[in-house]
């Protein structure tokens, strides 16, 4: 019996050694799965983006008072889709599934997520496509893992790789998208997901190439910022100072979202009526302040190219915070990362209007970094994403601003699933 067991062990060892001789490289078959989910993510994100652009071109012609019934109707229709096809959940559910359910995301509700989010975003909701695509591509990673009978960390890593592929396709930053997919899961648990870093990076690179080929988007920055010229080491301290304003805006946003969330919970309407009410509120805000409509991808360039009074910037700041809060809490589908960058840019312009002759690009980038790090608790990936999106060549001031927003964030995060087990117990 012992001889048989030993013989089997020797045979197994020989097979392993033979396979290593046959493949002298670091990569294994899992590498091709990471590439595959990246390609799938690029195709899904590219197709989604093209459809979204066409819908935006069609619906952005609706202006003035007609915006209110349009958005109310879009909310009602999106709610009916969710009611009939199933509720795909929000970012809290995604984070919880990655952390506590072995990294499995359910792909069955993807049709509901795709259709409802397209309606919500295209009609003018203040939420972007990153969150819906994270769910769709991440769950596709789970599906692939199950088809190839992966278990444990391999399954979780492929799911996270799908999430990273979605982030990267939309942000155009493979490294930033990879880190964001890990960091959003909770800063205290990043080490747990370190094994997923390389899969996420490989999938992100693949996704980025495919997305660019499909959409023909440029490889340069998304937002054309004024040229930043570092003056002295004092810029780092100014970045911290400006970040305080961005962090304050983050606190304001979190407070507003929590109040709106309590309000919708008290009402307890069916999902379709809740989204219709949300559409009514967002539509009223968009009618009163048209620049607050949509998720800010194109509107941020308008901020950079036009001049605005202090009074208008204050109104726009309040309107955008309310629009995002109504969008997020009423059940409208979409993510708030790009909208938060928009809010940060408004805060930066407001500071520059109140205290002119300052370093405008430094002010804006600091406020944008601080508010996103404060709300999402992702200081590392926020730094890399912003540097890529804005073409900001000096990354150190962004680091200082991101860390400021992160360490001055509320103890209880906006994304409840980011709470650690010990914090839940408290």
Automatic annotation (TrEMBL):
The chain crosses the membrane at residues 31-52, 64-83, 158-182, 194-216, 236-257, 269-289, 309-329, 336-354, 384-409. InterPro entries: Cl-channel_core, ClC, ClC-type_chloride_channel. This is Chloride channel protein. PANTHER family: CHLORIDE CHANNEL PROTEIN CLC-E, CHLORIDE TRANSPORTER. Gene3D superfamilies: Clc chloride channel (1.10.3080.10). It is a multi-pass membrane protein. GO terms for cellular component: membrane. It is found in: Membrane. CDD domains: Voltage_gated_ClC (cd00400). Keywords: Membrane, Transmembrane, Transmembrane helix. It comes from Hymenobacter aerilatus. One of its GO terms (molecular function) is chloride transmembrane transporter activity. Its main location: membrane.
